[in-house]
Amino acid sequence: MTHATVGKRNISPLGKGKEKILHEDDGLVEEVSDAEVDLGFVGCVHEGVEDGLDPGVDSDGTNSWHSEEMKTPPNSEDELEEGNESEEASPLFREGARFEELHLEVGMKFGIKWEFREAVREYTIQEGRCIKIVKNDNIRCRAVCKVKECPWAAYASRDHEDTCWQIKTFNDDHTCPKEDKNRAANRNWVCSKLVKKVRKYPNFRHCEATTYFKTRFDLTLNKNSISRELMDARSVVYGDEKEQYRMVRDYGMTLLKTNPGSTIQICTTPQPDGEVTFDRM
Question: Which stretches does the entry tag as region Disordered (predicted)?
Fold first, then answer.
């Protein structure tokens, strides 16, 4: 390893020169004469030259100097405020917000257009209003209230830089009355709400579903739609019956693997069309 030796030397007094100072307010450049220039060293300083760097050695008292440690200045309050405003200006939509706690605002971002449409659907059901989509393409989506005189509107467009969708216009002023029947609560929406109930309460009944939607969402649904959506929800939770019976043989093989020496018999009943139906196991 090669060592660099630094010899002791006298420290020259501060140099004189001209320094240009840029004033941010007026953009003019002012020349200042005889500005002091700080001379410093970069690198490791050996013990042999500590006296040379001592401001009290070889100093005439007028040109003495002190070295200063250079540090990155902390962010100013203005920069911090601008950063906070930037973050607050573009909130990100979080799916799964509790009913009655969902809100929309200008600048809110969505991953895909479907998220924006479903958020608008949930929000309008929450507010008890009916809306319709009047523009829906690859770059924009606009929803308005079905009542022509009502100024409520939500407009979102695609942000190519962030590859997301963002609300650009949002007028949350409804002048129309609330309704307890809302076509925004379509089959998929009702089914998604019933799936949670059926998973928690397997014997969730029709009358309980009617009461649930009235008390929780202030919605009045007809009997046929509730019956249909209950069947859909049970299919999601328990799966289709035919699909389950097709897995019987796989289930039998799993039992044989986990219980060596066992015997599994699957009894079926032939049908005229050639299909067989499960009888017993």
Answer: 1-20, 50-91
